[in-house]
Amino acid sequence: LGLDMEELEEIEEDAGLGNGGLGRLAACFLDSMATLGLAAYGYGIRYEYGIFNQKIRDGWQVEEADDWLRHGNPWEKARPEYMLPVHFYGRVEHTDTGAKWVDTQVVLALPYDTPVPGYMNNTVNTMRLWSARAPNDFNLRDFNVGDYIQAVLDRNVAENISRVLYPNDNFFEGKELRLKQEYFVVAATLQDIIRRFKASKFGSTDSVRTVFDSFPDQVAIQLNDTHPAMAIPELMRIFVDIEKLPWNKAWDITKQTFAYTNHTVLPEALERWPVDLMEKLLPRHLQIIYEINQRHLDHIASLFPNDVDRLRRMSLIEEGGTKRINMAHLCIVGSHAVNGVAKIHSEIVKTQVFKDFAALEPEKFQNKTNGITPRRWLLLCNPGLAELIAEKIGEDYVRDLSQLTKLHEFVDDDLFIREVAKVKQENKVKFALYLEKEYKVKINPSSMFDVHVKRIHEYKRQLMNCLHIITMYNRIRRDPAKLFVPRTVIIGGKAAPGYHMAKMIIKLINTVAQVVNNDPVVGSKLRVIFLENYRVSLAEKVIPATDLSEQISTAGTEASGTGNMKFMLNGALTIGTMDGANVEMAEEAGEENLFIFGMRVEDVTELDRKGYNAQEYYDQLPELKQAIDQIKSGFFSPKEPDLFKDVVNMLFYHDRFKVFADYEAYVKCQEKVSELYLNSKAWTKMVIRNIAAAGKFSSDRTIKEYARDIWHVEPSDLKIPPPNEPRDAAEDKTPNGTAA
Question: What residues bear N6-(pyridoxal phosphate)lysine in this entry (predicted)?
Answer without folding.
Answer: 566
